[in-house]
Design a protein that fits this description.
This protein is an alpha+beta fold. The protein has helices spanning 5-8, 18-27, 163-166, 188-192, 211-222, 272-280, 288-300, 309-315, 387-396, and strands at residues 2-4, 31-39, 48-52, 55-58, 60-65, 71-81, 89-94, 99-104, 122-127, 132-134, 143-145, 149-151, 154-156, 159-160, 194-200, 245-248, 256-263, 304-308, 322-326, 333-335, 341-343, 350-353, 356-360, 364-365, 377-384.
Length: 403
Amino acid sequence: MKVPLSWLKEFVDIDLSVSELAHRLTLAGLEVEEVRFVGLPMPEESIPGHTSPGRSIEANVTGLAWDREKIVVGEIREVMPHPNADRLVLCRLFDGDQEHTVLTGAPNLFPYLGQGPLDPPLKVAYAREGARIYDGHQPGAQIFTLKRAKIRGVESYSMACSEKELGISEEHEGVILLDADAPTGMPLADYMGDVVLDITLTPNMARDANILGVAREVAALTGARLREPSFDVPWQGLPIGGRVALEIGDPELNPRFVLGLLEGVRVGPSPYRIQLRLRMAGMRPINNIVDATNYAMLEIGEPLHAFDYDLLVARACGQAPRIITRLPEPGERLVTLDGVERQLDEFTILVADQAGPLSLAGVMGGAETEVTEKTRRVLLEGATWNPVHIRRTATSQNLISEA
């Protein structure tokens, strides 16, 4: 599992160096295989990794430091047409000191073309001339230095960056759009630089397969106080008994199952700070609803799943859906969220309804009832499952998901 250090520090104070932290975690049974520095300087000393009989193996260390003077938070104040190219735009960008004209072909900026001055402006990761970044157009991790060039008659010497160019992920379909409160001119490394520990967990350490679990181990190893997460969220809880029914087929397989109905939902992108956390932890952002379930799972270790409630009603022919947890019937199949049609074996625990399977319990949801931009009502599932059956399901389907 991938553990961003900034996320870990929300639950426990860490005064150790990254090298010492990795060493202590490895000795405690959480073997650190790789340490990735995202925007921050890499240490000169080696970082201890896992051990084998008679020897200690260093952790693999990767990353690229973002120059604090050359890579900063910028704000795009206007997106204008390029005079000689339809697939490029010019951005009027302020970097905290002065305005620049930045040339880009990022598709996520084209919707702002011709809107005039933007209020509020778009916050982006801005690289000045001379910055060292990854080449977003080349495979692998090839580093280059930004230099002046003339592109279709317009001089270019700086750029708004994608995640790939900064080494965050392989995403290069558009520039990073930071949250609106990102401080213009701040060094990007100060704003969102991080260190990610890639930890291998053995089955007996499954309790630590979440950020809070690793934080508990750090607190035990260092004597620091653990800060438990707060769940004091204001909400209006109304009974939903008449709008959905629940049937647990076998309490040995499914001891607990909780449902909640969310109405008036607007599905869209998550704030960038949430997307970044998920990327750092090895997950792909989907939308605000799915991202929220994944965020909670990574943080506290409770897999959640969101269904489009109206699609469940449609499957129930307009009636209240009946959610059933059970084992498969002979020959049943399910198309999961990754688009694969799966044959279900006898050990697979299912979440189903009157019409058939909905999801592989505790592993992956089904495609037919996934949350999309059209979703307006969400049925949220939180459940406890028999771990032996969940492991069998994941293994037999070759589907080792974060859940």
